[in-house]
C-alpha cells in the first residue's frame, strides 16, 4: 500500500500500470511487472492484461474523484499494489490509515513531498525517514507521543535499494542525493506565524525534513502492526527563504520526482 500527498505520483503509477497491461510479457524486463492482471481505477473502471488472455476494459471512470482516490494493480490471487492520494494533513493521514488497517495490508509506505531543513539539501533530494517527531497530535489519545516509533530495517533496506536502482548510484554518491534522518510531522501549515516556534524542536531532534503526514502513517502502522516506511522528496526549504512557489512543482517533477514510482 502506497500513500501519497500529490496527484502526479498517482499519475505515474497509472501510466506504469497501463504500460504493464499493454506491453508483451516477454518484453517486461523487470520481474516484478509479471503476474499483474488488472488495473482498477475509482468508479470500477478496469483495464485487464492483454498479454494474459484478457485485454478488456470494463466499467466507467468516476465522473468525479472521491476525496481520497485509490488505484489498484492486482494479481490473480488478489494481491498487488494500491496507491491512495490522501491529500494534505495529519487528519487525512489518520482517517485513511485507520480504515485501511482493517484490510491487513502486507505493508504501507508514505511517498510524497517534504520541506528540507538542512543547508546541504537540494530541491528533489530524497529523504528516508529513520525517526519521527510527532507534532501533529491526532493520535495522542491512542498512542502517546512518548511511545517511540522505530524504523523497520527490512523496509529501510528495500526503500534504499529502490532509490539506488532508480538513480544508478551507490555508496557516497547515493548519500549525496538521499539523506537518512528524522522527519517532523506537524499540524501547522507552513507560513503560519507559529511555525517559528518549531525551529527549536528541529534543532533538538536533528530533524532533516518536515511534512504533515508521515509520522501519522508510521505511528498507525506501529499501532496496528502494519510494516511501514517513509520516502520523501524535498520540494521546498522554508527555513532558507525558499518557499514552495506555483512554478516549482513543474520543475521538480521534470527533474527527479517521477522516477520514484518506477
Number of domains in the coordinates? 2
Topology as H/E string?
EHEEEEEHEEHHEHEHEH
Give the low-pLDDT segments: 257-262
- In helices, the fraction of residues equals 25-40%
Layout of strands and helices, then pairs:
Layout: E1 2-4, H1 7-22, E2 36-40, E3 46-48, E4 57-58, E5 70-75, E6 80-85, H2 90-101, E7 108-116, E8 126-135, H3 153-167, H4 171-175, E9 178-186, H5 199-205, E10 207-211, H6 214-224, E11 228-236, H7 248-255
Parallel strand pairs: 1-6, 1-7, 7-11, 8-9, 9-10
Antiparallel strand pairs: 2-3, 2-5, 3-4, 5-6, 7-10, 8-11
Helix pairs in contact: 2-6
List its salient traits.
262 residues, alpha/beta, Rossmann fold, 2 domains, 11 strands
What does this structure look like?
Residues about 255-260 have low confidence and may be disordered. The protein has about 260 residues and is α/β, with parallel strands linked by helices. It has helices at about 5-20, 90-100, 155-165, 170-175, 200-205, 215-225, 250-255, and strands spanning about 1-5, 35-40, 45-50, 55-60, 70-75, 80-85, 110-115, 125-135, 180-185, 205-210, 230-235. Strands 7-10-9-8-11 form a five-stranded mixed barrel, surrounded by four helices. It is globular and about 60 Å long. The two termini are about 15 Å apart. It contains seven helices and eleven strands. It has two domains: about 1-85, no CATH class; about 85-260, Rossmann fold, CATH 3.40.50.1580. Helix 2 (about 90-100) runs parallel beside helix 6.
Amino acid at each position: 500500500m502506497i500513500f501519497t500527498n500529490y496527484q502526479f505520483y498517482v499519475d505515474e503509477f497509472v501510466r506504469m500500470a497501463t504500460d504493464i497491461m499493454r506491453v508483451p510479457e516477454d518484453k517486461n524486463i523487470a520481474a516484478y511487472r509479471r503476474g499483474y492482471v488488472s488495473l482498477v481505477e475509482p468508479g470500477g473502471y478496469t483495464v485487464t492484461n492483454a498479454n494474459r488472455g484478457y485485454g478488456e476494459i470494463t466499467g466507467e471512470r468516476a465522473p468525479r474523484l472521491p476525496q481520497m482516490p485509490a488505484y489498484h494493480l492486482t494479481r490473480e490471487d488478489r494481491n498487488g499494489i494500491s496507491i491512495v492520494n490522501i491529500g494534505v494533513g495529519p487528519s487525512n493521514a489518520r482517517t485513511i490509515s485507520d480504515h485501511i488497517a482493517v484490510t491487513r495490508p502486507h505493508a504501507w509506505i508514505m511517498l510524497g513531498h517534504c520541506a528540507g531543513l538542512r543547508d546541504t539539501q537540494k530541491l528533489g533530494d530524497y529523504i528516508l525517514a529513520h525517526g519521527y517527531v510527532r507534532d501533529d497530535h491526532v493520535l495522542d489519545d491512542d498512542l502517546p507521543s512518548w511511545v517511540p516509533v522505530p524504523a523497520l530495517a527490512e523496509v529501510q533496506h528495500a526503500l534504499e535499494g529502490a532509490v539506488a536502482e532508480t538513480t544508478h548510484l551507490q555508496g557516497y554518491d547515493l548519500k549525496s542525493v538521499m539523506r537518512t534522518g528524522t522527519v517532523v510531522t506537524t499540524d501547522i501549515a507552513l507560513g503560519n506565524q507559529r511555525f517559528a516556534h518549531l525551529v527549536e524542536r528541529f534543532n533538538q531532534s536533528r530533524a532533516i525534513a518536515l511534512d504533515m503526514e508521515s509520522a501519522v502513517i508510521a505511528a498507525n502502522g506501529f499501532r496496528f502492526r502494519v510494516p511501514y516506511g517513509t520516502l520523501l522528496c524535498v520540494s521546498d526549504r522554508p527555513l532558507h527563504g525558499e518557499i514552495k512557489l506555483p512554478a516549482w512543482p513543474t520543475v521538480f517533477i521534470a527533474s527527479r520526482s517521477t522516477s520514484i514510482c518506477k
